[in-house]
Amino acid sequence: MMKHTLGLGLIALGLAGCAVPGRGLLGPSPLPPAATTVDTTKAEFGRVPLVTIAAGSTTADYLSALTGAVQAAEARKPDVVFDVVSTVPQTATPLDQITAAKALTPQASAVAQTIMGAGVPASRVTLGALVLPGIGGEQIRVYVR
Predict the structure, then answer these.
(1) What is the CATH number of the domain that holds 98?
(2) In this structure, what are the phi and psi dihedrals at residue 102, rounded to the nearest 5 degrees?
(3) Which among 6, 7, 9 is positioned nearest to 85, based on CA atoms?
(4) Which end of the chain has fewer CB atoms within 10 angstroms, the N or the C?
C-alpha cells in the first residue's frame, strides 16, 4: 500500500477508510507550507500529503478545505485514490505508538467519511497508520495516488 522509509513500518488498522494527501494544516485560512517543510515530509515518507489535519481538530475546522482539496484532486485525476493516514511520532514503545494510532481512528474515520461525502466511492478510500520520527504531534494526513 505505502512505502515506508527509515526502518519504520506501516501499522495496519484493518479499517475501511479514505485518504487524501495534505499540503498544510487545515484551518480557516491555511498557509502554504514552507519549502523546507515539503522537503522534510517528502524525505520522511516519499510523498507530500495533500492535506494535514492536527489531531483533535473538529470536522468544522477542515470540512471546507478538505472538500475543496478532494474536488481539485478529482478534477486532475478522476480515478484518484485517497489514503487517510493516522500519523504518530516515534516515541516511547511500539505498543504506545500502536495505542496512539488506534486513538486517532475515530478522527481518521471522520476524515474518510468527509471524503466520501464529497462523492468519492468507498473503493477509492483507504485508512492506515504510520509512525514517523521527528513530527511534532499526532496528525491525520491525506495522500493521493
Answers:
(1) 3.30.1330
(2) -65, -35
(3) 9
(4) N
